[in-house]
Write a structure and sequence with these properties.
With 388 residues, the chain is an alpha+beta fold. The chain is 49% helix and 16% strand. It contains 14 helices and nine strands. It has a five-stranded mixed beta sheet with strand order 1-3-8-5-6, with helices on one face. A four-stranded antiparallel beta sheet has the order 2-9-4-7, with no helix packed on it.
Length: 388
């Protein structure tokens, strides 16, 4: 597994309440027209709040049909398209929302920050920053724009500029847990670990249901060899997101560092169980001088049963072969599939090794070989040695 990345650029998704502007019979230079069937607009907003996005899209579309130059209709539908993952449609609607926007800097700023968030999801940082810069120029108090820009700048490793944006958000919104969480991550990158810990503590206090600060704080504790605190945070993160398989891999690495061999092996096994897409059982002998070569892809799992006697010493090597980018991960389980020992990257580079493990009892065991996070597809050579 390659080194875990501390900083996570958070993609921000909101259920946005579209601002409604006062309208009357008098045309102004901005030409804000009277709306037809405003109840459709209200129904669409209520459907969004209820997460009934299909109904919301239908109501917004009918509203736009009757009000083809109403910015708010396009904005509401664009945000709804974003919620359902139809990003190109969302961009098209937000472009129309900008075209028909009234002369309201705060409203136009919000459209641009929403569009920037979509550009972030499409990995178009240049377009995102252009929108964010304009959004903040229009409304310096737009905390959404400041937070997203901070995330983009942090991703680009412009950490000082990112900190400036997070500081601005916290000054405007002292209870913004996301700003504390992201500022903590940036402070970790800069080596300001005490400041990072303060930020992450504050983020967790403000919102104990947010997973990311627990993960980042676990990384910080682990870097200080405070493995018990790191494990406590990872347990909290997994309580919140038990299907987050990467956290099992992270916790396994912390358990390995804490010399909790069986706990690490159990976590490696949980990772495998969560990512398995194809499983093989092989009865090839692994005890020869030449490795058994297997093809590996993410999600593939190989089982190698073997017999062993109490007191024997077990050594295993799973090595990435030449011109291969596979990242082997190994776990040994007993006949009840209880994980006993495992490893990822212990052999250097991406190779996995188990050294000098003493077999606890006579019986049938299984070596399980799978793929960790690093690398990609490739071939792996597997060797097993049992000695008295």
């Amino acid at each position: 597994m390659r080194k875990l990345v501390v900083l996570t650029v958070v993609v921000l998704l909101w259920v946005v309440t579209v601002p409604v502007f006062a309208q009357d019979d008098t045309n102004t230079s901005d030409e804000v027209p009277l709306v037809v069937a405003p109840e459709l607009f209200m129904q669409a907003g209520q459907a969004v709040q209820a997460q009934n996005y299909g109904r919301a899209l239908l109501d917004y579309s009918l509203y736009i049909l009757l009000n083809p130059t109403d910015s708010q209709g396009f904005y509401g539908r664009g945000v709804t398209y974003e919620q359902v993952g139809e990003l190109d449609s969302a961009l098209s609607d937000l472009n129309h929302a900008l075209t028909f926007a009234p002369d309201s800097p705060a409203y136009t700023s919000q459209i641009r920050s929403t569009r920037a968030n979509i550009y972030v999801q499409q990995n178009n940082a240049e377009a995102a920053l252009d929108d964010l810069n304009q959004a903040i120029e229009l409304d310096a108090s737009n905390t959404d724009a400041l937070l997203i820009r901070g995330n983009v700048l942090a991703f680009q490793q412009h950490y000082d500029e990112a900190l400036s944006d997070y500081n601005a958000v916290i000054e405007l919104q002292p209870d913004n847990n996301r700003a504390y969480s992201q500022r903590g991550a940036v402070n970790m990158q800069l080596g300001n670990l005490d400041d990072a810990l303060d930020d992450l503590n504050q983020a967790i206090e403000l919102d104990p249901s947010n997973v990311q600060p627990y993960v980042n704080r676990a990384l910080l504790y682990s870097s200080r060899a405070d493995f018990d605190s790191a494990l406590n945070d990872l347990n909290s993160a997994l309580d919140l997101t038990p299907d987050n398989s990467r956290l099992y891999l992270f916790r396994a690495s912390v358990n390995t560092s804490a010399n909790k061999v069986a706990d690490a092996a159990s976590d490696y096994l949980l990772w495998m169980d969560n990512i398995t897409t194809r499983e093989f059982t092989s009865f090839d002998s692994l005890s020869g001088s030449d490795p058994v070569v297997i093809d590996m892809e993410p999600g593939w799992v190989y089982n190698f049963p073997f017999e062993a006697a109490e007191g024997q010493t077990l050594n295993i090597a799973a090595s990435t072969l030449e011109n291969s980018q596979a990242d082997p991960l190994v776990v040994v389980v007993d006949s009840n599939r209880m994980a006993l020992v495992g490893n990822d990257d212990g052999g250097g580079n991406l190779d996995a090794v188990i050294e000098d493990f003493v077999i606890p009892a006579d019986g049938r065991y299984t070596l399980i070989v799978s793929h960790a996070l690093g690398g990609a597809n490739g071939r792996i050579g597997v060797l097993l040695d049992l000695t008295q």
